[in-house]
Design a protein that fits this description.
Elements lengths: L38 E5 L7 E3 L6 E4 L4 E4 L24 E3 L2 E5 L3 H9 L12 E2 L2 H24 L2 H10 L8 H14 L1 H7 L3 H14 L3 E3 L3 E4 L5 E4 L6 H9 L5 H14 L1
Antiparallel strand pairs: 1-6, 1-7, 2-5, 3-4, 8-9, 9-10
Length: 273
């Protein structure tokens, strides 16, 4: 009985695949039309209630142009907001905030000027209402968010040795895992963003961190009446009554007289490794 020879099948040659070239995406300019605000908006941030009547009786402000105190009054039939420039038929009109907001149309410039000059306006040092500037508010909020994001990035990306002086300055325990130090600094960066960012360029932060470590490692002794060298008990600087020894020591070390003390502290810390 003969064995049938099974011929090895050759793989079929595959036809070359066509290279599909995607057409370049054409960027199209998006047309936009920025809306022009027709009304000026004012708001009472807190405690306005449903309706709030803005006081008009006896409202006086200092007029720098006339160098005198003048009475302010809104009368829609008068071109001026000054009572001494209004006629006998001047008729006051109630200025009412509804649910904390007041919209002044473009065709009422005298009302807008009255609001802008009113002593209760926060722009004039008042505490009741303010003009709403959505563009400015958005710019300020963007700025705050960008600074916060930068602070968060610094907590994430900075070498831990660069973060330790900052941690000591804000009272963070540095004898914990690195992740815990970064987590605590992250919370500080969110709550005290400006102070956190400024601390990286502050000489006081570096000095304070060195003094804090010197105290922790018994190089110096911080007492209520003064700061002393721990080994000799020799006075470095006296602390006046009612002041914190840390604050006094930091200020002292940042002076010309205290500079050698700071150098000695840093040398001793370096020897600790």
């Amino acid at each position: 009985m003969t064995k049938a020879k099974v011929a090895a099948e050759r793989p079929k040659a595959q036809a070359p695949q066509a290279v599909i070239t995607k057409p370049p995406v054409k960027k199209r300019t998006i047309k936009r039309r920025e809306a022009v605000l027709q009304n000026t908006e004012y708001e009472i941030p807190k405690g306005a209630g449903i309706v709030f009547m803005l006081p008009q009786k006896g409202v006086t402000v200092y007029d720098s142009e006339e160098d005198t105190v003048r009475e302010l009054r809104y009368c829609p039939n008068e071109p001026s907001i000054w009572a001494d420039e209004q006629g006998e038929k001047a008729r006051k009109e109630t200025v009412a905030f509804r649910e904390g907001r007041l919209f002044v149309p473009k065709d009422k410039p005298n009302l807008r000027k009255f609001m802008d000059m009113h002593p209760m306006n926060m722009a004039n040092g008042g505490k009741l209402f303010r003009q709403v500037d959505k563009q400015k508010d958005a710019e300020n909020e963007l700025k705050r968010e960008f600074i916060l994001n930068e602070a968060i990035s610094m907590v994430r990306d900075k070498d831990i040795n660069d973060l330790l002086p900052i941690a000591l300055y804000f009272g963070v325990n540095i004898n914990t895992p690195v992740t815990e130090i970064r987590y605590n600094l992250l919370n500080i960066a969110k709550k005290k963003t400006k102070e956190f960012m400024e601390s990286f360029d502050s000489p006081q932060v570096q000095v304070r961190s060195a003094i804090q470590q010197a105290s922790d490692y018994q190089i110096i002794n911080m007492k209520k009446d003064g700061c002393y060298w721990f080994d000799t008990n020799k006075l470095i600087v006296s602390v006046p009554v009612g002041q914190e020894s840390m604050d006094v020591m930091v200020r002292f070390c940042m002076t010309e007289k205290g500079s050698p003390v700071l150098s000695s502290i840093e040398e001793r810390l370096d020897r600790l490794g």
